[in-house]
Amino acid sequence: MTVTAEGSATVIINGETTRFLDIADRGLQYGDGVFTTLSVQEGVALFLDRHLARLQADARRLDIPFPCQAMLTEEVLRIACTHPECVLKIMLTRGVGGRGYLAPKPSKGTRILSAHGKPDFPKSIRESGVQARFCKIRLGLNASLAGIKHLNRLEQVLARAEWRDENIREGLMLDHEGFLVEGVMSNVFLVQDAGLRTPLLDRCGVAGVMRGLVLDSARDLGLAVEHARILPEEALGADEIFLTNSVIGIWPVSLLGGKKFPAGRVARLLTRQIDGMAARDLQSQKAGLARDATK
Amino acid sequence: MTVTAEGSATVIINGETTRFLDIADRGLQYGDGVFTTLSVQEGVALFLDRHLARLQADARRLDIPFPCQAMLTEEVLRIACTHPECVLKIMLTRGVGGRGYLAPKPSKGTRILSAHGKPDFPKSIRESGVQARFCKIRLGLNASLAGIKHLNRLEQVLARAEWRDENIREGLMLDHEGFLVEGVMSNVFLVQDAGLRTPLLDRCGVAGVMRGLVLDSARDLGLAVEHARILPEEALGADEIFLTNSVIGIWPVSLLGGKKFPAGRVARLLTRQIDGMAARDLQSQKAGLARDATK
After folding, report:
1. Which of A57, A254, B80, B238 has the fewest CB atoms within 10 Å distance of its CB?
2. Is cis: bond before A106, omega within 30 of 0?
């Protein structure tokens, strides 16, 4: 079965293979849900533990029920078996019910897993870097939602609508006060004085799983990391800039705001480190699956 | 056929009677859509012209396609015939497609009409007023989304989760800077020196249809209206406070922040005025329907 980047061949909703959801679901009515997007490679959902931990932490912050982990993992495996090379999106919503904005308590929750085709970015991008731009639309500040990968994504939709030039791979977004926060679909890191700087995500933004991997790798490599309020001018003064998400991995930025950047040493170092972690995760999950199969 | 406040007996998606939507719809994936909620009475969708005009204006701001108006009106009539007393929700999403946040251009759009039971608020509320509270969660500022009734409503969901005391009918929300903006499900007006004050909705908030009716009625009655940044302390100093939306009409606030308010003269005056407009709209739409039927 093949999947395309646009559609999805397989969707599982609450364990059932169907792509149709009751419109009363609060995920549609209010964007009342969270999600995570991960890369499936050789039939293995990469860094699944981290994705599920993040999903669970996000759901807890919004008081959205988190399903039985064994059941969720089994559904991930069903998708990964059918689509050994895909992008897997897992959504958890608060489900159906309530009176208007008032949610039922407890709520039942809905879980939706869908397989999508891997985007066909040229491999060379990881070496040569990408062109990025600054977006005009700003991110509103709300500490209650900051860091969460939730379903209210209109700001990202409007930001991504600002350009259609395919050479520009990502747009960087500032918050209401003008500080750099993230890319439309990625997190952002600056390399300065051989250390990393990355925007504080305490007032808006999404704390991505790949961002977490970069932070852990930086620690392992002995690189200092500063979480800060960063102005766009400061970003342009960095030695390197790179973008992260679970599907793209790490992308060096080669051109931003008219300024050229080297596809730098630190991004390469971290890429190698995380490629190693991914390979070990892949082998360890494969070994686990083989053990389960022979039980 | 009966409808309950929680479920919906009739749903029409793109003209077809079904309550199930493709999960690939951007309405679910990103909250990429707009909606309006209106009251159906004696088989007539009250103030339908205003609701469709608002929906169209909101859709235009987000570049979401607006369907053929005759077709949409016909679908509204189908619902209103089957459910002569209901709350009708009309949602327009950007539909299926695109690559991630990047929307297809042009997009096809999805329209969803659903009938819901009228909430069973006691009638006396319109006279005696309601108890309200201030919510802790703030509204993020984003001029690009301000005023639009869009599907990104997590702030409202979190605000409404702050209380379960049924005596408290509404929560008032402040913006990131501490200015009063609106109720969770309503707009808010203060009466001061025999004029009206209502929060500016240029940085966040939803510009409701009933709010528009109140503004027009105030003009007709010769009441001055000031659109302003209002602090909660100022609100507590008002002579009257009232809340508006298309389902509740006008609710005087009788208790807020420990302070009692009279269910005042101006709210009563505006209620009478808008009841009159509703009655005329009802008669005029009924006459139109009778004309169409005998053609």
Report:
1. A57
2. yes
